[in-house]
From TrEMBL:
<feature type="binding site">
    <location>
        <position position="116"/>
    </location>
    <ligand>
        <name>Zn(2+)</name>
    </ligand>
</feature>
<dbReference type="InterPro" id="IPR002481">
    <property type="entry name" value="FUR"/>
</dbReference>
<keyword id="KW-0804">Transcription</keyword>
<protein>
    <submittedName>
        <fullName>Transcriptional repressor</fullName>
    </submittedName>
</protein>
<feature type="binding site">
    <location>
        <position position="113"/>
    </location>
    <ligand>
        <name>Zn(2+)</name>
    </ligand>
</feature>
<dbReference type="GO" id="GO:0045892">
    <property type="term" value="P:negative regulation of DNA-templated transcription"/>
</dbReference>
<keyword id="KW-0408">Iron</keyword>
<dbReference type="GO" id="GO:0008270">
    <property type="term" value="F:zinc ion binding"/>
</dbReference>
<dbReference type="GO" id="GO:1900376">
    <property type="term" value="P:regulation of secondary metabolite biosynthetic process"/>
</dbReference>
<feature type="binding site">
    <location>
        <position position="145"/>
    </location>
    <ligand>
        <name>Fe cation</name>
    </ligand>
</feature>
<dbReference type="GO" id="GO:0000976">
    <property type="term" value="F:transcription cis-regulatory region binding"/>
</dbReference>
<dbReference type="GO" id="GO:0003700">
    <property type="term" value="F:DNA-binding transcription factor activity"/>
</dbReference>
<dbReference type="Pfam" id="PF01475">
    <property type="entry name" value="FUR"/>
</dbReference>
<feature type="binding site">
    <location>
        <position position="153"/>
    </location>
    <ligand>
        <name>Zn(2+)</name>
    </ligand>
</feature>
<dbReference type="InterPro" id="IPR043135">
    <property type="entry name" value="Fur_C"/>
</dbReference>
<dbReference type="InterPro" id="IPR036390">
    <property type="entry name" value="WH_DNA-bd_sf"/>
</dbReference>
<keyword id="KW-0238">DNA-binding</keyword>
């Protein structure tokens, strides 16, 4: 089933761009304020970058100079509570956030370079076989997972000139 979704990744991204946040927040019982909208726009524009609260704040204040760090912090927490963003921990001393794609039924994986700290997205689930085995052997229904792989990225593997 996941394989069908992968084919639509290009299209899913386009749909993410045009996502109706107002409708989405209304469904979750929240109002779309200018500040919430601004934070959502930044997360959407920087998808794949896994921004920290401070980084979101730095971007948001350019379009929304009256916003404070505390508001950004609360907004991101709200988004996490209503499950439109995912909180990530890449062991770099801060929490990082990304919008949850409505095309994803399971969380995508992250590759973390231990040399330069770069984080690479793995769009494919690739765990179907493992999930099936765990579900069978442990009588456990898997609903999601967060997988981090540590290693060396292709740029860091190249010998330096
Ligand atoms: Zn999965
Ligand atoms: Zn690297
Ligand atoms: Zn990610």
């Amino acid at each position: 089933m996941k394989k069908e979704i992968i084919l639509f990744i290009g299209g899913a991204y386009m749909r993410m761009k045009g996502i109706d946040f107002k409708e989405l927040l209304k469904q979750k019982g929240c109002k779309l304020t200018t500040q919430r909208r601004a934070v959502l726009d930044i997360l959407n524009e920087h998808s794949g970058e896994h921004l920290s609260t401070e980084e979101i704040y730095e971007y948001v204040r350019k379009t929304c100079p009256e916003i404070g760090l505390a508001t950004v912090y609360r907004t991101v927490q709200l988004f996490e509570e209503i499950k439109i963003v995912d909180k990530l921990n890449f062991d770099d001393g801060c929490s990082r956030y990304e919008l949850i794609s409505n095309e994803e039924d399971h969380h995508h994986h992250h590759l973390i370079c231990e040399n330069c700290g770069k984080v690479i997205e793995v769009e494919e689930d690739l765990l179907d076989g493992l999930e099936e085995q765990i579900e069978k052997n442990y009588i456990f229904k898997i609903t999601n997972h967060k997988v981090k792989f540590y290693g060396i990225c292709s740029r860091c593997m190249k010998p330096s000139e």
